Amino acid sequence: MSGPIGVGVIGAGVISDTYLENLASFPDVTVVIVGDLIEERAKSQAEKHGVPAWGSAADVFANDDVQVVVNLTIPAAHLEISSAAIAAGKHVWSEKPLGLDRAGGRQLLADATAKGLRVGSAPDTILGPGFQTAKRAIQEGVIGEPMFATTTFQTVGPDLWHPSPAFLFAQGAGPLLDMGPYYFSGLVSLFGPVERVAALGRKKAEERVIHSGPDAGTTFPVEVPTSLQVLTSFAAGQQASSLLSFDSALERHGIFEVHGTEGSLVIPDPNQFEGRSAFVTARTSLADGDWGEQQWTEVEQKGMVVGRGLGLLDMIRAIAEDRPHVATGELGFHVLDVMLSAQESAASGEFVRVESSISAPVPSVPVDFDPFAATL
């Protein structure tokens, strides 16, 4: 690879705006075509963002200038599109989740390996300076040895604001597969692979009501648990508890805490690229009833803030530099396996062993990583 790398985007939905805006700012990347099932929508996005070509997914695969496909389709189509990209000889970056079933995910990774191609998988928020600052603080020992973590995402539900929310309550979604990738990717990046999962899940109702848009007042079925509590046990010995809910009147997003032998650290929202990191150390004495206010130590955030597309850029540079990239398909598959195991545990009431793993620790991002430099 030398010079800007040609990228083709498949999927011209809402999230494509963020990707196309950010990718246009990276000198190492050139978006050459946008494809979509609805070609008129691909044309509209291409013209809006100054992309010279548009068409179908097949047009993206056939374009000789495309070296990497960015898969922004709906989750149910992720494996189909990513597999077709690999078959066409293209590296692929996929939005989360990597797919919806284990067999398809394994086959995708095997096919990519056989062809010497890379797979990357969102979320790439774990590459942002917010999360990376917290990760460095843990590695530097500010809280001692990490022991356990707590994460929380709870909201009243996207049916309150989304004009077409049914897909978020269908198989392959719900709070677990929709929001879980952010939290579990963060946990695995910090602690390594998960060995066992236990979960409890329930629904608030079998049907929900659309509250906004042209279909307001109509109902739709709920196919998956809308509140889940998940316990994860990691191979390195750490544990975590995670709450994911579309049923909560109390809104609490992005809570991510890591507790160690010497202190506790709060980490930025894993759905964001920046945010506050701070820690408290364990008290050495405490009078009965004198809890008082704990003294927080702020951790200075370091690194450039960008947004979605950062993981793709890292993958492109990693290919050129012959090094591992951060948000690998292997990581995305392991996180998918963890979430599917949580679903199975919630249904069975038993611990489920996670069969997949990751072959190496998730790499960190150098503080001086500059997305706006021309490196190829």
UniProtKB/TrEMBL annotation:
Molecular function terms, GO-annotated: nucleotide binding; oxidoreductase activity
The keyword Oxidoreductase appears for this protein: yes
GFO/IDH/MocA-like oxidoreductase domain ranges (all copies): 131-266
Domain Gfo/Idh/MocA-like oxidoreductase N-terminal: 5-119
Domain of life: Bacteria
Cross-referenced InterPro entries: Gfo/Idh/MocA-like_OxRdtase_N, Gfo/Idh/MocA_oxidrdct_glycsds, GFO_IDH_MocA-like_dom, NAD(P)-bd_dom_sf
Signal peptide region: none
Entry keywords, A to Z: NAD, Oxidoreductase
Name the UniProt record assigns to this protein: Gfo/Idh/MocA family oxidoreductase
